[in-house]
Amino acid sequence: MDMHTALQSSIDKVGALSAFDDKEMTWNMKDKNKNAKTEEKTNVMRILDSKKIKYNHYCYVETGETNGEKVAAILGQDPAYVYKTLVTVAKSGANYVFVIPVKEELDLKKAAKAVGEKSIDMLKAKELLPLTGYIHGGCSPIGMKKFFRTTIDASAEDLDKMYVSAGKVGYQIEIAPADLEKVIRLEYVDVTV
């Protein structure tokens, strides 16, 4: 199966993307999709709309996938632009958010140093929903129940776009890092292994 056939098959299976430009091998999200599920707005999208911030949204609900690298492949995105949102807890009890590329791992020592803590650990999955309002696989840096200090890996600082969760499993947004800064306070620091 050639790449075009494989990607077109993903489009048909997901039912979320509106057009595929065969010549440039890129996704075109400008056309409206008639599939009602792709038109569903998440709270993240509503926040961005209310602030008149430009973004594109993607839906892959039908796949049930939560692994960032696999989602990037399904949607035909370069994994270097796809980021995951991780929530941590410090020894002090404070919580911190880190947004890193899906192919990378959070360096807990670098992360602790970046936020001025002695040590931090990943938040347990069962604690994520009550704390942030999000579940594993659908956690976004935008629209958490309360604001937590947010650090984005330095690799995003010079990007023209990045992809993050839209706050619900199966939904993703594409946004410029400069526009993300208009919605949440953040800092760029090298925090990956």
TrEMBL record:
Q: Which top-level enzyme class is recorded in the Swiss-Prot or TrEMBL entry?
A: lyase
Q: Which GO terms describe its biological process?
A: translation
SUPFAM superfamilies assigned to the protein according to its UniProt record, in alphabetical order = YbaK/ProRS associated domain (SSF55826)
For this UniProt record, the keywords arranged alphabetically read as follows: Lyase, Protein biosynthesis
Q: Which GO terms describe its molecular function?
A: aminoacyl-tRNA deacylase activity; lyase activity
* Claim: Endoplasmic reticulum is one of the keywords in the record: no
Residue ranges of domain YbaK/aminoacyl-tRNA synthetase-associated in the record: 69-182
Q: Which residues form a coiled coil?
A: none
Which Gene3D superfamilies does the entry mention? YbaK/aminoacyl-tRNA synthetase-associated domain (3.90.960.10)
Q: Which EC numbers characterise this protein's activity in its record?
A: 4.2.-.-
- Give a yes or no for keyword Chloroplast in this entry: no
Pfam families tied to this protein: tRNA_edit
What InterPro entries does its record include? Prolyl-tRNA_editing_YbaK/EbsC (IPR004369), YbaK/aa-tRNA-synt-asso_dom_sf (IPR036754), YbaK/aa-tRNA-synth-assoc-dom (IPR007214)
Known NCBIfam families for this protein? YbaK_EbsC
Q: Which family does it belong to?
A: Belongs to the prolyl-tRNA editing family. YbaK/EbsC subfamily.
Q: What is this protein called?
A: Cys-tRNA(Pro)/Cys-tRNA(Cys) deacylase
To which species is this protein native? Coprococcus eutactus
Lineage at the top is: Bacteria, Bacillati, Bacillota, Clostridia, Lachnospirales
